[in-house]
Amino acid sequence: MANSGGQKxxxxxxxxxxxxxxxxxxxxxxFHLSFITQIDDTLIPLLQGGVTDSKTLFFTILTQLGxxxxxxxxxLITVIIVWRKLGxxxxxxxxxxxxxxxxxxxxxxxxxxxxxxxxxxLIPISGYSFPSGHAAGSTTFxxxxxxxxxxxxxxxxxxxxxxxxxxxxxxxxxxxxxxxxSVHYPSDVIAGCLVGIGTITLSxxxxxxxxxxxxxxxx
Length: 219
Known about the structure:
This protein is an all-alpha fold. It has one domain.
């Protein structure tokens, strides 16, 4: 990514906008504002329509790839690989990004908001609903993984387009799974995704402006 003119602070702007939109949703949920109900009532029928055993099995398996255990395990493996291949500074960068987007922000707001989950979930579930930890965690982890690949491994222009799109589609499927399985409201998963986007773009901005940079690589 070019680092000149109006683009110099593009990543920071995206991060701030994402966090502000998240806070906007949080205020809406906290004060039971009507636009939250409108979002949920509009999207739930679209995402939960046509429940079948095969779809439920598919989304039950898929949703585990965005769960807390999977995210912690995948993140630890990634941090170790980054440490071995790219050095301790970038390992700290990766670890801080994962911790912030996957655990710190989601857990703080879950325990501040105390939103109850939807009724009649299709899988066993506990804890609070807002924001979706699966959406925040998967957006943070898989989004950051895409950034790492773009920075250090992907060389072909086509792969630099295709790989992020595939990661984005995978994240979207995990988000859909949470609503389909009736363990989150759509506003929960949108908020979680915004947390992830805000975190990885802020992390990328920090890298782009010299912190943790390796061999002057740029996004």
